[in-house]
Write a structure and sequence with these properties.
Elements: E1 11-16, H1 36-44, E2 50-55, E3 76-79, E4 82-85, E5 111-115, H2 138-144, E6 149-155, H3 157-170, E7 174-183, H4 190-201, E8 204-206
Parallel strand pairs: 1-2, 1-6, 2-5, 6-7, 7-8
Antiparallel strand pairs: 3-4
Bound molecules: pyrazine-2-carboxylic acid (VGL) and zinc ion.
Amino acid sequence: MTDRLAIGAADVLLVVDVQNDFCPGGGLAVPRGHEVAPIISRLAERFQNVVLTQDWHPPGHHSFASTHPGRQPFEALVLAYGAQVLWPDHCLQETTGAEFHADLRIPHAAAVIRKGFRPLIDSYSAFYENDGATPTGLVGYLRERGLTRVFVTGLAFDFCVRYSAEDACREGFSVIVVEDACRGIDIEGSVAATRRSLAAKGAVCIASDAIA
Ligand code: VGL
Ligand code: ZN
């Protein structure tokens, strides 16, 4: 096929949170989350530039329902920086749940951005924490490396993939979400809302077989 997207030196594959806790059996399991690991591993062979993110929470993190007496997972709460969904405990630092899924095999990945390690702030996006202001440093990393087009994959489509893609758009990167390399949690229509929001913000959704 001639109309496939060719991957080049200015492209980066961003692999969001493909960790055991987001896979079946994990603390915050995304339905069929494990399926993305081999898909992304294969896709990564086409990219010279790959960056991984790793959700990385301390015990008692403020985004955990267990930190707030009387609160249940998946309830929303207003924290200092705004609305926050409360999650089951997940991706605790240095636990098996926080490790990358064993089927994620990307030896040439150049950087791992950890996020969610500040006790009081959650971080969905690979670029900015949920206060919308605290940077992870990834914008500077990509700019300094001359990377201008970001292909976003991973878990969960409707949270960390969504906010990473939207922040990348806002920062002026060209953004492509590879939808079959993502799986969603889908809380109250959040997958459909994500598709609408990504389109409105300028991210393009494609299937991985559209990549040459
Ligand atoms: C995520 C909820 C809490 C994600 C991380 O990776 O989408 N979702 N922490
Ligand atoms: Zn988290």
